[in-house]
Amino acid sequence: MTLSDFIARAYIVATGEVSTLTTSDDDYEKLRQLANINIDDWSSEPGVSWRSLYSIENIGAVTATDTFDFDTDTIREISNQEGDNVRLVHADGTNYTDYALVAPERLKDFSTGPYCAVIGATIVFNRAFVSTDPQFGGAINVPCFLFPDLLVNSTDTVPVDIAEWLVYATAAEFDRTDLTRQNLYPGLVAKANDLMIAMKQANSPQITPLHKDQVSYPNGSTW
After folding, report:
1. Domain of 164?
2. pLDDT at residue 219 above 90?
């Protein structure tokens, strides 16, 4: 569903009238901005990591340090799902080393081996790299969930898994502040909530409890 399609559908759901809106109309802009607010809310829905926002991102090259920043304007969070490791592709472009993510406060317990942690907007490894390491100069690839692209141009695609959720959620907010249509708000919200449930069910592999392989610590505890 494009932004143009979305505007037409959201308008008829909200008002019962066929849209003749153009990009210069206030109602068009209001629907677009409400949609983008709802897209932001959708991407940060509590307890859900949307698979459609999952990506492997290259955050730069390995240099002589143990700390590497990632772009928080693009990356919303680093994934810690089972099997998701930070992969360093060696300078030869073929071989690689996978680094297991551990809790930040426990990184000090792993002085050897391939381990790292996410601390704020950085990936911190358990030691600094040196020029003789095979990883030195290679690429740092992180498994992560991105922020969705917001709707700007009429041909932009709605990034929500079930686009109709955005239609009803936006129509509800559009009507909430209109005295003549406020009575429609509860029904539109109920429909949006049903569609949210359907999205979560379809996304269930990513909202089940984490199955991260337990990591054994020197004192015998696990994480």
Report:
1. 3-46+150-206
2. no
